[in-house]
């Protein structure tokens, strides 16, 4: 009986983001979440990996940073509940991320995480996006 929440490690290197990009993705109005089973070399097997990004299409630096802060907080609250251990997730901000109502943003993130978990093993052997 393990009641301890899963640890969430940050993805920081470009190769980690590129690895996850080859997995499954869930698109919502305010966020895109990519997920892929970890190959085992980057983090420990029981942890969840999380990375955050926002392109220039989203807005200037202030808006992009606000989007990433909002996604980090949503991931902090929801990944231990809906994320799968041994998987890496990349949260990509969209143009509506900055202005979206907090409860609706949380609903989008939760819905995307649940659909990725329901798909089974996102990005597992033999599966592509």
Structure characterization notes:
The protein is an alpha/beta fold and about 130 residues long. It contains three helices and five strands; from the N terminus they run E-H-E-E-E-H-E-H. It has helices at about 15-20, 60-80, 100-120; strands at about 10, 25, 30-35, 50-55, 85-95. Strands 1-4-5-3-2 form a five-stranded mixed beta sheet, with helices on both faces. Helix 2 (about 60-80) packs across helix 3. The longest helix is centred in the middle third of the chain and has 22 residues, at about 60-80. The chain is globular and about 35 Å long.
Tertiary shape? globular
Task: Determine the N-to-C terminus distance.
Answer: 34 Å
Query: How many runs of DSSP E, i.e. beta strands?
Result: 5
For the biggest sheet, the summary is: 5 strands, mixed
Question: Into which percentage range does the β-strand content fall?
Answer: 15-25%
**H/E order of the elements?**
EHEEEHEH
* Class by alpha and beta content: alpha/beta
Summarize model confidence as the mean pLDDT: 87
The tally of helices reads 3
**What's the Cα radius of gyration?**
14 Å
Strand order of the largest sheet: 1-4-5-3-2
Low-confidence parts, pLDDT < 50 over ≥5 residues? 124-129
* Helical content class: 25-40%
């Amino acid at each position: 009986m393990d009641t301890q929440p899963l640890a969430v490690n940050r993805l920081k290197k470009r190769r980690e983001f590129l690895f996850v990009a080859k997995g499954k993705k869930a698109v919502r109005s305010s966020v895109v979440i990519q997920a892929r089973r970890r190959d085992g070399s980057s983090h420990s097997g029981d942890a969840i990996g999380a990375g955050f990004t926002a392109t220039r299409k989203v807005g200037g630096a202030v808006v992009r940073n606000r989007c990433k802060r909002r996604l980090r907080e949503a991931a902090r609250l929801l990944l231990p509940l809906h994320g799968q251990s041994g998987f890496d997730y990349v949260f990509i901000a969209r143009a509506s991320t900055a202005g979206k109502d907090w409860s609706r943003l949380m609903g989008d993130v939760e819905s995307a995480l649940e659909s990725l978990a329901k798909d089974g093993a996102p990005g597992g052997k033999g599966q592509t996006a």
